[in-house]
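HOLO CASE FILE
Compound: protoporphyrin IX containing FE
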Amino acid sequence: MNASDTAGTSDTTNTAGTPFSTLIRTASHEQHTEAETSTFMSDLLGGRLGVEAYARYTEQLWFVYEALEANTGRLAADPVAGPFLRPELPRRAALERDLAHLRGPDWRATLTALPATRAYTDRVTWCARAWPAGYVAHHYTRYLGDLSGGQIIRDKAERTWGFSRKGDGVRFYVFEDISNPAAFKREYRELLDGVPADDLEKQRIVTECKRAFALNTGLFRALGEEFPLSA
Ligand code: HEM
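Model generated. C-alpha cells follow.
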C-alpha cells in the first residue's frame, strides 16, 4: 500500500512483546464501545425498532459481505490474508436466505445501499484489491464480531420479531460449520498473532481496524437517521 495512506496517524501503541491479537483488541476497544452503544444498536437491542429497520440493516450487511467475499479467490493465495479465509465463515448465502424471508423472493429488486454502506464497501474492496493486510483488519472486525456480539443480536432478533431459533431471518448469525466458537476464535487469534507483518505494518492494520469500526458506526448513524424513534 501507499505509506501516505496511513502516515501521520496518532497510533503510538508499543507492539513489542504484545501478541497482535491482544494489541488489535485493546486498540479498538473504544471504537467497539462506540459501535455497540450507537443509537441504532441500542434501539435494536432494546427491542424498540420494527422489523423493517432490521430488514434494512440486513440489506446493508449484504453489501458489506458481498465486498468482503467477492475477492476471496485472489486473496486465497496471499500469504497475509489467505490463512484467514476459512471456509466456515462466508455469510453471503445466509444473508440471501434471510433477505428472501424478510423481503420475499424478489428481495434483489428493492435492494439499495445507503451512502454510508457504499463508503464501507468501497474501502473493503480497495483493501481486497490493493492491500491484503488491510483486508485482514476488515475481516477481523466483521467475522470475529459476528461470532461474538452477533450472538446477542441474534437472540434479541429472535425474541423481538419472532424468528424461529437459528432459522430464516437470523441465519446470518448462525455459523453452521463452527461447532465450538470459542475454539474457533482462539485459533483465529493465533492466526493474528502469527501474521507475517512487521511492527509498522501491524500498526497500519490496527489503524485500518479502527477505520473499519468507524465505517460500521457511520452505517449505524445512517440507519438511526432512517429509523428515528418517535420520542
Ligand atoms: C450491540 C452490539 C454488540 C455487542 C453486544 C457486542 C458484544 C461483544 C462481546 C461480548 C464480545 C466479546 C466476545 C469474546 O470475548 O469472546 C465482542 C467481541 C467483538 N466484537 Fe462486538 N459487540 C457488538 C457490536 C459489534 C460491532 C458492531 C462490531 C464491528 C462491526 C463488533 C466487533 C467485535 C469484534 C471484532 C470482537 C472480537 C474482539 C476480540 O476478541 O479480538 N462488535 N463483542
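CASE NOTES: Residues 147 and 181 are 7 Å apart (CA to CA). The first helix runs from residue 20 to 27.
CLOSED: yes
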